[in-house]
Design brief:
The chain has 136 residues and is of the alpha+beta class. The protein contains five helices and five strands, in the order βαββαββααα. The longest helix has 20 residues. The model has no long low-confidence stretch (mean pLDDT 86).
C-alpha cells in the first residue's frame, strides 16, 4: 500500500470549492479504494492519501493537473503496512490541525519538515476524528 502527502496552494479557496472537492474525492476514493485526510486553509492544502500504488499515482497525477491547486509539491511518498485513515474516503480537518502559521508555511516549513513531523500532523487528525466518532 502506498501513502503520499502533498501540499499545494489553493486557487480560489472558498467553502463551495472545498465542498466540491470533498464530494468528488469521497465518491472517487470509495471507487478506487483510497482513503485519507485533507487539511484546508486559505494558504495551503495539505493532504495525505493512501491506497493501492497505481490508484495513488493516478490520483496524484490528476491533482497536479487540477486547476484548483497551484504549486503542487510532493512532500512524502512511501510504502506502508496499514492505513492511517481506514474509515474515511476523505476526512476533512474542519478546524485545521496544522501546527504551522501562514508565515511559516510561506517560508517553507512544510518542505523542511521531516517524514515523522508530517505524519504527526495527520496522526493528530486521525486521533481527533476517532475520538469524535466514539463520542455520544
Amino acid at each position: 500500500m502506498k501513502q503520499l502527502i502533498y501540499r499545494s496552494q489553493p486557487f480560489g479557496f472558498d467553502n463551495s470549492t472545498l465542498a466540491g472537492i470533498l464530494i468528488q474525492a469521497r465518491r472517487n476514493n470509495r471507487r478506487d479504494d483510497i482513503t485519507g485526510a485533507l487539511i484546508c486553509r486559505h494558504d495551503v492544502y495539505l493532504q495525505l492519501i493512501e491506497g493501492p500504488a497505481g490508484a495513488i499515482d493516478a490520483l496524484y497525477a490528476r491533482i497536479v493537473e487540477d486547476d484548483r491547486h497551484a504549486e503542487v509539491s510532493l512532500a512524502l511518498s512511501e510504502t506502508v503496512e496499514e492505513r492511517m485513515f481506514p474509515e474515511w474516503e476523505m476526512l476533512d480537518d474542519e478546524l485545521p490541525t496544522l501546527t504551522w502559521s501562514p508565515a511559516e508555511v510561506a517560508a517553507g516549513a512544510i518542505e523542511k519538515a521531516g517524514p515523522d513531523e508530517l505524519r504527526a500532523v495527520f496522526h493528530r487528525i486521525a486521533d481527533k476524528a476517532r475520538a469524535g466518532a466514539s463520542s455520544p
